Amino acid sequence: MATGNGLASLGVEGATSAAHALSLPADAYGNDPQLEVMWAMKAYQHAEIYFNLISSVDPTFLKLTKIDDKIYSTFREQFADLNIQLVDPDRFKSAEAREKWRPFCNEFDGLIEDFNYGTLLRLDCQRDYTEENTIFATRIQFFAVEIARNREGYNSFVYNSKKQSSEAGLS
């Protein structure tokens, strides 16, 4: 992402202000392009860290929150038929989908910090974060899908692929 120079140009004081600004609710702002870039950078960094994590550690053993069990059971009760291996963006973005997701997301208000912050979600769990394989989702949607992918073994593909390529490099 070519936005690193923008953040570096803020300096220490500007970066501190930006960090504070990112901690405020989204409805406190208009459409400030610089703020949108900072949100995108934060989401990208989160995605990069998460992908490195599932590439390095067997995801079936990962615990993403203190309440993974509640998130997973509630998610699978309310979205039993949602294909998490290959996510259809319309199942997140359509008006009908938003109405279905809203009560689910709001159930975690106060339980998950920043539950409604923007996060990047991979559409195809066997692929990395790319422009065509990524959508914006709320943080609780990300947790719900990724906890399910981890528990149901779908993210193991990423871990096993990385492990096999590392082992092949040692041979």
Structural description of this entry:
- Helices cover 56% and strands 6% of the residues.
- The chain has 171 residues and is mostly helical.
- It has a single domain, classed as yst0336 like domain (yst0336 like fold).
- It has a two-stranded antiparallel ribbon.
- α4 crosses α7.
- The longest helix has 24 residues.
List strands and helices in order, with pairings.
Blueprint: H1 4-8, H2 11-22, H3 33-56, H4 68-78, H5 90-93, H6 95-106, E1 118-122, E2 134-138, H7 139-151, H8 156-170
Antiparallel strand pairs: 1-2
Helix pairs in contact: 3-8, 4-7
H and E order: HHHHHHEEHH
Largest sheet: 2 strands, antiparallel
Spatial gap, N to C terminus: 33 Å
Question: How many discrete domains?
Answer: 1
- Report the strand count: 2
Percent range for β-strand residues: 5-15%
What's the level 1 CATH class?
Mainly Alpha
Q: Helix fraction? A: 55-70%
Tally the helices.
8
Uncertain runs are 1-10
Placed side by side, the strands forming the largest sheet appear as 1-2
Average pLDDT confidence is 84
Give the second-level CATH assignment, the architecture: Orthogonal Bundle
What is the gyration radius calculated from CA atoms?
17 Å
Pfam family, one: PBDC1
Domain Polysaccharide biosynthesis: 35-159
GO cellular component, one term: cytoplasm
Protein name: Polysaccharide biosynthesis domain-containing protein
Task: Looking at this protein, list some descriptive labels.
disordered N terminus, two-stranded antiparallel sheet, Polysacc_synth_dom, Polysaccharide biosynthesis domain-containing protein, yst0336 like fold, mainly alpha, 56% helix, 2 strands
